[in-house]
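hi! just following up on the protien thing from before. the input was this:
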Amino acid sequence: MKRHMKMEQRDQFARDGFYVFENILDRPLLDRLNSFCDELLVRQEPAHFGMNRTTGSMVLIDWNMAYQHTVLAELVAHSAALSALGQLGFDDPKFGHGRIISKPPHSPPLFWHEDGRFWNDPISYSSP
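and the predicted 3d structure came back as:
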């Protein structure tokens, strides 16, 4: 049964581009992440939000921030999250960077786009 569920999850991820795992992060970690994001967003200049109306805020999270803020390091190395990724077939995930995206209600729709930073890498031309 467990193997069947794993294949179902992988198939949905491949088909839809996402899979929702519930109850991976506990409430205290979520609260700390929300507080961290709120603090970071409040420090952004108003022009930042004007420039990013369709995408929402685009605050970069890089390795330096993950080293400086333990809540980010906890998220990147969270055992249950890594286990969930493993269930989708990602046994050796890597953290490159992330973004804090906060898009207010009634903002303009997001234009069509693709997220990708490895266009010149052979991995870009494979299904994973």
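The radius of gyration is 17 Å.
Residues 2-103 form one domain.
cheers
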